[in-house]
């Protein structure tokens, strides 16, 4: 949908297009600048950051800040680097994403193809759960996790992330399965196929796109979570985001900006990687989450 | 046969039950529990002595809480307005048959994949007068350049807006771009035949057609603004002083560090009411039409 140029205004049009390109490139610079700052300063020695220009390329290239951020930086009380927290984040995100996606798929299947009285109310209540401010859940969740013996554990964080991810995963699959032909499900039922057979043999094989969208959405949200990690995690379970914040905001000693930048990139790498590899699906997830609820 | 059929009709509900039960517990029971705590004399730990609405009246007398609400009003308004204007503007420019669109769009969107902690870290040092932008300008010879907003009690909240807009505006752009792509070309052709200029077509026809996108963007951004927590923690830690305190950081500090759990719980309830008064009317109108794809 764009305006075809009138023939007599080609000159003006060319100028206008040039301007548009310039503005678009300026915006690109604006969005890339913080990433550029993080990258170039993560490979400079500290003295060069303090005395030199933040936007300049490194005069002396060093990977030391990366080694420090990964394996020796002081996080909280221990000098472990970010590595153990990176592992914590993986151990938390992978099961939480897998469980919430599987449950979301089953829920979406039930809510579209096995409709029952009150199913819209059930869905509405699940959908509303996507939007609650988590502050409302912090106090009771801490108590429940304590009662279950899951306080400060990765399993506790997985449980919380599954609970608060279900609304979104159910929404994604429900909207996707709503367009799936119900006749196929009915025909399989008449042939005597069970609920799980229909799900596995008929629905799942055609669900790849929505599974990708859901997995990316959930992974990004869970990996980037800070509030739950800070509230319910301890040393053995705190995720990467919490460790990064501890690293950056620790007030003791010299501020090692280069190490902070390297740590920030390390924390961003997994979601950036997912975004670069499958940006198309990432955007689709954002839109599904936004436009449809 | 009937027993098998009966069994088959229970299975879907059994499949949905655990998810629904989890949501009922983690969302609705937790809301009730926090609501109850907000009426009690809970301090460091939950306690069940009812005190009526005392916490709420205390809350509304706290300058600290008013500060958080004022900040939310400033931050929320600017965040929503700037993201929408910028998002629409860039989307319209990108929609002019730009050859590099496939290259530019991902650049505008990638910040959405990052954790707010990463964004906060990058902007914290980028805006730091000692090593960031101000320092760089001085090195470039602009000696009088001064940018100390992040350290300024009256201006620090605007740095939170800057970082938040950087993170979310690309996403709003993607929403508008999808909306623009959905505009019927016939309407535009008809207007062009009538001699309307490009500007007029955008102002009178296309932008008014974006109403649903404005609404979606408003709902998404408003609820993100009310929930904002991580970004403030990473960027300013709520400071200098209480200059960038938001309701979410207020709730956390009253509940977990100041041992005023009753007041913390009542502030969480206020946040919930704010979000629900935006989300529930929106979901209601969206859901009435039934599932769409």
From TrEMBL, chain A:
Coiled coil: none annotated. The keyword Transport applies. The keyword Transmembrane applies. GO terms for cellular component: plasma membrane. It comes from the Bacteria. Gene3D superfamilies: MetI-like. The chain crosses the membrane at residues 20-39, 85-109, 121-145, 157-177, 198-219, 257-277. It is a multi-pass membrane protein. GO terms for biological process: transmembrane transport. Residues 86-278 form the ABC transmembrane type-1 domain. It is found in: Cell membrane. Keywords: Membrane, Transmembrane, Transmembrane helix, Transport. PANTHER family: ABC TRANSPORTER PERMEASE PROTEIN (PTHR43879), GLUCOSE IMPORT SYSTEM PERMEASE PROTEIN GLCU (PTHR43879:SF1). Belongs to the binding-protein-dependent transport system permease family. This is Sugar ABC transporter permease. It comes from Pseudaminobacter soli.
UniProtKB/TrEMBL annotation, chain B:
One of its GO terms (biological process) is transmembrane transport. The chain crosses the membrane at residues 14-36, 72-95, 107-127, 155-180, 201-226, 261-284. Residues 69-284 form the ABC transmembrane type-1 domain. InterPro entries: ABC_transporter_permease (IPR051393), MetI-like (IPR000515), MetI-like_sf (IPR035906). The keyword Nucleotide-binding does not apply. CDD domains: TM_PBP2. This is ABC transporter permease. It comes from Pseudaminobacter soli (ex Li et al. 2025).
């Amino acid at each position: 949908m764009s305006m075809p140029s009138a023939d007599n205004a080609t000159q003006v049009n060319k100028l206008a297009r040039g301007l548009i390109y310039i503005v678009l490139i300026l915006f690109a610079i604006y969005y890339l600048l913080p990433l550029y700052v993080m990258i170039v300063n993560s490979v400079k020695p500290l003295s060069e950051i303090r005395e030199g220009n933040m936007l300049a390329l490194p005069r002396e290239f060093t990977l030391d800040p990366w080694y420090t951020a990964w394996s020796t930086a002081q996080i909280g009380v221990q000098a472990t680097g970010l590595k153990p927290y990176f592992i914590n984040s993986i151990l938390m995100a992978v099961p939480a994403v897998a469980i919430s996606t599987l449950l979301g798929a089953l829920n979406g299947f039930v809510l579209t193809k096995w409709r029952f009285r009150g199913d819209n109310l059930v869905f509405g209540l699940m959908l509303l759960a996507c939007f609650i401010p988590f502050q409302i859940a912090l106090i009771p969740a801490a108590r429940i996790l304590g009662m279950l013996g899951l306080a400060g554990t990765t399993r506790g964080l997985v449980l919380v992330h599954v609970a608060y991810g279900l609304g979104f995963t159910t929404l994604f699959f429900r909207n996707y399965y709503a367009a799936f032909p119900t006749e196929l499900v009915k025909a399989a039922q008449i042939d005597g196929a069970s609920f799980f057979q229909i799900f596995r043999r008929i629905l799942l094989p055609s669900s790849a796109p929505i599974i990708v969208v859901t997995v990316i959405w959930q992974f990004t949200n869970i990996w980037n979570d800070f509030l739950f990690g800070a509230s319910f995690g301890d040393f053995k379970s705190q995720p990467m985001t919490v460790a990064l914040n501890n690293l950056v905001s620790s007030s003791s000693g010299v501020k090692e900006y280069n190490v902070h930048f390297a740590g920030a990139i390390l924390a961003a790498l997994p979601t950036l990687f997912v975004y670069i590899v499958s940006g198309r699906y990432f955007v689709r997830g954002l839109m599904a989450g936004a436009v449809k609820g | 046969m009937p027993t098998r059929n009966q069994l088959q009709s229970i299975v879907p509900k059994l499949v949905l039950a655990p998810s629904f039960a989890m949501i009922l517990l983690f969302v609705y029971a937790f809301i009730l529990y926090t609501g109850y705590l907000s009426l009690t004399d809970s301090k460091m730990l939950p306690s069940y002595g009812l005190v009526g609405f005392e916490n709420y009246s205390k809350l509304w007398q706290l300058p600290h809480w008013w500060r958080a609400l004022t900040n939310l009003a400033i931050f929320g308004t600017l965040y929503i307005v700037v993201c929408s204007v910028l998002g629409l503007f860039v989307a319209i420019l990108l929609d002019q048959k730009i050859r590099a669109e496939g290259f530019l769009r991902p650049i505008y969107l990638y910040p959405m994949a990052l954790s707010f902690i990463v964004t906060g870290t990058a902007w914290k040092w980028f805006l730091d007068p000692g090593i960031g932008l101000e320092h760089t300008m001085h090195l470039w010879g602009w000696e009088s350049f001064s940018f100390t907003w992040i350290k300024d009690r009256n201006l620090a909240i605007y740095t939170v807006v800057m970082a938040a807009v950087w993170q979310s505006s690309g996403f709003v752009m993607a929403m508008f771009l999808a909306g623009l792509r959905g505009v019927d070309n016939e309407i535009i052709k008809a207007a062009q035949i009538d001699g309307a200029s490009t500007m007029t077509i955008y102002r009178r026809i296309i932008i008014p057609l974006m109403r649903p996108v404005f609404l979606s963007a408003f709902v998404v951004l408003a609820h993100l603004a009310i929930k904002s927590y991580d970004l403030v923690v990473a960027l300013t830690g709520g400071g200098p002083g209480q200059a960038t305190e938001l309701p979410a950081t207020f709730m956390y500090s009253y509940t977990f560090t100041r041992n005023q759990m009753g007041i913390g719980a009542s502030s969480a309830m206020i946040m919930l009411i704010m979000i629900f008064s935006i989300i529930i009317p929106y979901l209601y109108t969206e859901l009435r039409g039934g599932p769409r794809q």
